[in-house]
């Protein structure tokens, strides 16, 4: 494990040693290159569009970060997103009340997330399987509740959440994105719960023998991951003006991708929340850039998948330094 | 490790190898099995010199087979597949010749004269059956010499008898058996000769039938190292912690244990006597099936550690890396963990936490580059201080320590003893120290509890006992 000492080398190590730093550098480089390639890229309109496009995935990825930090994984985010969106849409159809709709969406999402937590703590099903099962169940729930038909006709004040702009520049979803990251970052860093998440992810047995209630950690992380899927569902519905029962398909790939691109270890206990935001921005930038360059949209999946693998490969290589 | 050992094994004999932990028994058997190299000296096998290092493959060709304490069986395969595994590896072709597998298995099991279903999966076998299967595999390798490392550690009395009759059978076939064990009475039953190792030297080779037990123990300890017992007795006024008629899946026989205020109770016994299980059930890490635990006047119902920690218990597990520490977190995060658990509410006072950590690092003399260094980069002794410090920082009242000084250097060991002694002087504080190192228990404890086979066999005053007496109590086979 000894590495050669030498100031030069250890300096390089310290900089490379942080995945978030290297990913930020790559993000800035990418912005620079894209602005050379497309005159439209570095405009206020396009940059705010990137943050807007990042909002939904970024918010879901924030919750996913906590889950992965605790040593778990949440594969059900895309389906929970769809099911809670539909549930909220039905509340809207029934009542037409904005607040009840928001509450319904988020409550349904948090309940499905808590159910994940209960499967894991009470039934002792491994997170991968519990959330894989939920991926199926929640998707089915979305299709059953909506009878497979999208929900239209959301009210104007609802649409403002997705389409409004503060002083005509900053999109509302961008504000929500920043608020969510401030919130989740504070949980991870400043609350006892957040510290327990790290300890559990690092060594669940040592954490338990130190007196940590693991059930509470797991329930909390999965409930929060679910809840944030609901927040994402509200924004997406308001942006598109409709709720799709097939929505959120493949979001687990993007959300988990954002977390690992940010350098959070899939083994748990290592990583941070802000790095996930950078990972999510990187993913959106790639999609946005490929769009501007006129690349076929189907290729975006391929590139996104490849970037995730490359990011983890770089991370592994970096750890071996 | 070894400093010039002579050892010879006759055909058809069981030669027992005895010695304390660290005397060199494992090193010697690893050299025999080819796993380690000898620095000098030579090994002869049937009138031929085979050199000091020949590698495991040559050892197998010669017919020297070692059966370790931890089995090398594949749990999800059947008995027959485990027996035929070697032919899987050497035979050409893609397909398995199942008829051949069955034949190999049947032959090997026939030699064993012990009923094992060849179609059963290894994970479903009892420990004794697995042990027998290991021996069957050894025999199928055309073994001439079988080295057994603590073969009865996990066996019941009846299973031990079955093993002994098998060993007797092997002797008749002219095999040589090297038998490593702590259980002296067993060795007198099964062994022909005994060689005692101490500090890497062979001190004596005796006839097993005529050797006296206390003579063997004296040879193992060495006259010079019989420790002076230290007087530590403390007025026993107040019972701080007591277990009454406690039972669980390990402790079938209910037991009682009381700990007085300011007391350090040393729990000792051989490996496998139940020390770890005892500390775990007292801490709440293992469930109990009956009995009560009272602590500081309060009855503790069965609680997971999350409950007992809040009452003031603290636990230092045997394996600090896998159970004591969050290795990729920092020194500060690990030190602050238990005190964080005991706080209430969502937020916590970060400055206060930092202070606790800084104090612990300086008062415990933890050598670290700073509180934010990942704990995995610390040395063993400093890691252990972090585990201990976690509980001291959380102001716990009863410390349960399981092998707290295993694998750490002398300096850190003395620091840990000092911390334990200071700890117990606080009001309403006490320590339970489980250790297989009898010297350690004699040095640190105020009272010694001897465990054997999940039973408390004696409670001793360290001022009025000796290492010899404790070792005799540890090795005495309890009637099943």
Task: Fill in the keyword field for this structure.
heterodimer, A: mainly alpha, 14 helices, disordered N terminus, B: 480 residues, alpha/beta, six-stranded mixed beta sheet, 18 helices, 38% helix
Report on the architecture of this protein:
The complex is a heterodimer of chains A (321) and B (480). Chain A is mainly alpha-helical and 321 residues long. In chain A, 76% of the residues lie in helices and 1% in strands. Chain A has 14 helices and 2 strands; from the N terminus they run αααααααββααααααα. Chain A has a two-stranded antiparallel ribbon. In chain A, α7 crosses α11. The termini of chain A are close together. In chain B, α5 packs across α6, α9 crosses α18 and α13 runs parallel beside α15. By secondary structure, chain B is α/β, with parallel strands linked by helices. In chain B, the strands form 4 sheets. A 6-stranded mixed beta sheet of chain B has the order 4-5-6-1-7-8, sandwiched between helices. Chain B has a 6-stranded mixed beta sheet with strand order 14-15-16-11-17-18, with helices on both faces. Chain B has a 4-stranded antiparallel beta sheet with strand order 10-9-12-13, with no helix packed on it. About 1% of the residues of chain B have low confidence.
